[in-house]
Amino acid sequence: MTVRRLRASPARGGALHSPWGHVAQGAAALAAGMGVGRFVYTPILPLMHSQAGLSTATGANLATANYVGYFLGALAGILSPALVRSRATLRTGLAVLSVSLAAMPAAQEAAVWIVLRLCAGVSSALIFVIAAGSLFSRLREHPAHLPGWAFGGVGAGIALSGLLVLALRSVADWRTAWWASAALAALLAAVAWNLRPEAAPTAAAASGAAAAEGPMLRKRRWFGALFASYVLEGVGYIVAGTFLVAAIEQSSPGWIGSGAWVLVGLAAVPSSALWARFGRRWSRPDLLLAALVIQAVGIALPAVVPGVAAALASAVLFGATFIGISTLALATGAHLRFPRSVALLTAGYSVGQILGPLAVTPLLHHGYHQALILAAVVVLAAACAAAVLRIGFPHHTVVVREATPIRSPAPTDDDPAADRRRL
């Protein structure tokens, strides 16, 4: 029988080991895979424009390559569930990610950069799906804010990598920024190295899930609304996630753009835990709707209101919502007990991220403000889908518990085998 050490048992006075070690490992994995591996490109992008001769169109293509890789990694998790329950896959992804970041300055050709960002995207997706699955499964019986703090690792990675770029931009070039980010990713990978992935389902759990298939089929429409909302969120948020710094630097001093990105990360650190705490009073669909509306306002703000104050407010609103939205969406999929919900939602999210830069590329010839307006409109469309999710949402679901061994009835005095069982 497998013993899950992280699960608290009220009858025994709690788990033997604190869950915070698992939270720290999950946060480090998400910080490396997402905060650094994916999003360090955002503050480095202006440096590559000015120092490496990177064109606006090529910059968008590099972003798209990373998102295509992310989709391929998420798709691999759907087609091969065992792949995202493997510690070897996690470790390989962390190693490949660090190497791909370190190799960026070694090349000058756009084609090589595209391949490297593609590899980084595949690694990021695998790391994210493994870490998210591990957190939702192994911390299931603990308070909901614990996985939230782990997802805050994405924000910590964004803040740390943003601070690195901000510190280096006046004393070094874009190459040093990539090397420093690779070193940071390697350090975080070392902390996450022994993270335990989600365990494979037991035969008893599989039979229990099959018994619950009828109720699950009746909930497909809610998952469909959730999926549509999350795909649209992927389209809208990634435009801001890629071009927000460059957009701010168009009308503000250069340090404001990098400083705003650090604010995004700092606001993201506690956001998932706070949204999880809000779940004590409001339902997840309500919170998802509110977060999407707030994010749309934050994305549009620097495009419609000039000045440093609007740029910094935009960074705080964006950072306070984008990780929270992901956590709420993935937790809602888990609440619906939809099979492979994390991998499916991550794949849909990545499709949206592929479409986002492609949709706004024609607008980039006129700067980034029009792109931000379009992104805000798409996020509002995601909010509309979340509003549909609220209609009749099943707040209470059938919980499928792991089967426990069937115990024989207590022997009675007239039981012929009683004496033998007492021996």
Task: Name the descriptors.
423 residues, 72% helix, single chain, disordered N terminus, 17 helices, mainly alpha, globular
Please state the structural category: mainly alpha
Distance between the termini: 25 Å
**Beta-strand residue percentage:** under 5%
Output mean pLDDT: 82
Shape: globular
Largest sheet: none
Number of H- or I-type helical stretches: 17
Order of helices and strands: HHHHHHHHHHHHHHHHH
What is the CA-atom radius of gyration, in angstroms? 23 Å
Report the count of strand segments: 0
What percentage of residues falls in helices of 4 or more residues?
over 70%
In the predicted model, the low-confidence regions spanning at least 5 consecutive residues are 1-16, 204-212, 398-423
Could you characterize the architecture of this molecule?
This protein has 423 residues and is an all-alpha fold. The protein has helices at 20-36, 41-51, 56-79, 87-103, 110-138, 145-168, 174-192, 203-211, 213-218, 220-249, 254-268, 271-278, 284-304, 308-335, 341-360, 369-390, 418-422. Helix 2 (41-51) runs parallel beside helix 10.
